[in-house]
Structure formats: C-alpha cells, structure tokens
C-alpha cells in the first residue's frame, strides 16, 4: 500500500468520525463509557465479509472474532478467550457463527495441495468432509462441493461452540444464549440461516455434556 493511501485512511477516519458525531453528538461518549453488545460474531477473516456492515450494526453492537474459515477449535485459546469474555462478562445473547460460500480456507482444505502450516489449521475442515463423504459423492462439480463444505463447516463450528464448557456452563446457570449458524453469499450480499441453532444442553450429544457445578445433576453427585 502506498503512502498516499495510508494518508487517505486517516482522512477517511476523520470524515467518518465527523459524520457519526453529527448524526449523534453523544455517540462516542457513550461508546467510550461502555460496550454492551448482544452479539458475538465468529466469522472468516476474508476481507469481503465485514461483520458489522452485513447486519447493519454500529460499533459497540457486535463483539467480533475472525479467523481463516470461521473455525472454533477447542485448543485455540484466542477463540476460547473471546467466547468466554463475550459469554461470561459481556453476556451476549447470541453467538453467530458466520461462514461464506467460496471460502478460500474451505477451498484449500477441499483441495489436496500443500499450503504449508495452514494445512494443519484446515485439517479440521477436512475432518468435516470425511464425516460426510456420501453427501459430496452426490454432487458433480467441485464448486458445489466446496459450497457444501462451507455449509457443513459452519454447522460443525456451531456444534463446537455448544460443546465448550463456556457455553454449557452458561446454559446450566440459566443464562439466555442462542448459538446460530449462518452463511453469507458474496455474489448477492445475502445471509442465509442454516437452521442449526441451539440454546440448551439437550441439543448436544450426551457424550459431550459437562456436568456443571450449576446443574441439578451436580448436586446429586
Ligand atoms: Zn473465508
């Protein structure tokens, strides 16, 4: 990026701050005092999928975590830290796992090329593909298969969010928390609900359930 375009970013920023202030003179004072977002967005790092803009939310309204291919990996302390802070401290009401069609990360997982270190990250997506092989066999083109993998990956990450101790403990103490899986189409800018939402421990397989110290079962032990 040239020096001119960096200068431009600061100019854009001053213009944006001026416009926001004109529309609501208290906006920045309120924002600086506290953030109280109702949503945690877990999305792809892809520059074409900006969290706030897509759902028409302002700064302060959505807590955001993005990584390559919107993954929730149980050993990823970065993602888990964001989730824990969002659920336990900010008390968000919804976790939105948002993938997008034709995701480069998902495509790289689908293809068998050697991409170096990132393949270890994407191996989690390969596991999703392996678990649903028959669905892929039913499709003809690679593009369709990649898009199916984008959808299945979102659903799998929703399951991962629900299987964390963080979400299960929130449910056990009666906190309202809905986890959703959505997918965004770059071609038309539209979001689609993949209908895999969950808001209770009964929706996750028994073997993944944690007997929380907040639950009735724990007091019986
Ligand atoms: Zn992506």
TrEMBL record:
Metal-binding keyword on record: yes
One GO biological process term: carbon utilization
GO molecular function: carbonate dehydratase activity; zinc ion binding
Cofactor: Zn(2+)
Reaction(s) catalysed by this chain's protein: hydrogencarbonate + H(+) = CO2 + H2O
Enzyme's top EC category: lyase
Database matches in SUPFAM superfamilies: beta-carbonic anhydrase, cab
Cofactor note: Binds 1 zinc ion per subunit.
Keyword terms: Lyase, Metal-binding, Zinc
Positions of Zn(2+) binding: 44, 46, 100, 103
Name by which UniProt lists this protein: Carbonic anhydrase
Species this protein is from: Aequoribacter fuscus
């Amino acid at each position: 990026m040239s020096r001119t375009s960096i200068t431009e970013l600061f100019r854009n920023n001053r213009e944006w701050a001026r416009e926001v202030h004109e529309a609501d003179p208290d906006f920045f004072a309120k924002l600086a005092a506290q953030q109280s977002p109702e949503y945690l967005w877990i999305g792809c790092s892809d520059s074409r999928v900006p969290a706030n803009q897509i759902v028409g939310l302002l700064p302060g309204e959505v807590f955001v975590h993005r990584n390559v291919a919107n993954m929730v990996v149980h050993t990823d302390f970065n993602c888990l830290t964001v989730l824990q802070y969002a659920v336990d401290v900010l008390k968000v009401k919804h976790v939105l796992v948002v993938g997008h069609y034709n995701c480069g990360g998902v495509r790289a997982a689908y293809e068998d090329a050697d991409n170096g270190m990132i393949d270890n990250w994407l191996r989690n997506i390969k596991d999703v593909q392996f678990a649903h092989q028959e669905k892929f066999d039913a499709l003809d083109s690679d593009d369709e298969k990649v898009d199916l993998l984008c959808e299945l990956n979102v659903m799998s990450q929703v399951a991962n969010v629900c299987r964390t101790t963080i979400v299960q403990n929130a449910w056990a103490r009666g906190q309202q928390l809905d986890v959703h899986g959505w997918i965004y189409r770059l071609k038309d800018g539209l979001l689609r609900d993949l209908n895999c939402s969950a808001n209770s421990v009964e929706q996750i397989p028994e073997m993944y359930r944690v007997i929380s110290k907040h639950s009735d079962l724990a007091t019986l032990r």
